[in-house]
Design brief:
cytochrome c-type biogenesis, cell inner membrane, transmembrane helix, Cyt_c_biogenesis_CcmB
């Protein structure tokens, strides 16, 4: 089973490098959305600082959503997904590898890029570790929950809008906790509670989402 997991992970990396646009589009979108806000509202540091938590988290949410529609689409179109469903190996484990790869190329990249963008929005340097921590805990939840919607809509043509309608309500708790942690840090208040709740959501999503994704893919492939 370890060999299967490793081979799947290597396969995802090879496919990703063959389609560099799939890697860069969410990150470019994330950076552009945040970069445009200082141009739109003006360079006043106090205003930018007050808007920064919401702007960064909404941009991260939309960038993740942008990359989800094609998460299983190519595997569905070339028949690989059907072979996964028919395989004797646990489907939930195989899709977990795929979602982990998606998070590594999108979520972790956003965490790395976030400090620079936070400075553009006049966030103090002391707040940047909190920003990175919230994104590090929250982006896996975005990828896992989003993969559930991607699995349910994999067999539908033009399912991107339906995917957004299914997933956006589930993203609201992550959005509230992520922005709340940064705002609390800006006010000098403790952020431990927010971080613990985000960690709980990450563990819960990691435990339940792969099973839901596998069930959704079985439904999508059988239709």
């Amino acid at each position: 089973m370890q060999r299967i997991v490793w081979l799947l992970f290597c396969r995802e990396w090879r496919l990703a490098w063959r389609r560099p646009g799939d890697l860069l589009n969410p990150l470019v979108f994330f950076a552009i959305v945040i970069s445009l806000f200082p141009l739109a509202v003006g360079p006043e540091p106090a205003m930018l600082r007050s808007m920064a938590p919401g702007v960064i988290w909404v941009a991260a949410l939309l960038a993740t959503l942008l990359s989800l529609d094609g998460l299983f689409r190519s595997d569905y179109e070339d028949g690989s997904l059907e072979q996964w469903v028919l395989s004797e190996h646990p489907l939930s484990l195989m899709v977990l590898v795929k979602v982990l790869h998606h998070w590594l190329v999108s979520g972790v990249a956003m965490v790395i890029l976030a400090p620079l963008l936070g400075l553009m929005l006049a966030l103090p340097a002391s707040i940047l570790p909190v920003l990175c921590l919230t994104l590090l805990l929250g982006t896996p939840v975005l990828s896992l929950l989003g993969a559930v919607g991607a699995a349910l809509t994999v067999g539908l043509k033009g399912g991107g809008l339906l995917l957004a309608l299914l997933i956006l309500p589930l993203y609201i708790p992550v959005l509230i906790l992520g922005t709340g942690a940064i705002e609390a840090a800006l006010q000098g208040m403790p952020v431990t509670g927010y971080a613990l709740w985000l960690g709980c959501l990450a563990v819960l999503s990691l435990s339940l989402a792969p099973v839901a994704i596998a069930a959704g893919l079985r439904i999508g492939v059988s239709e």
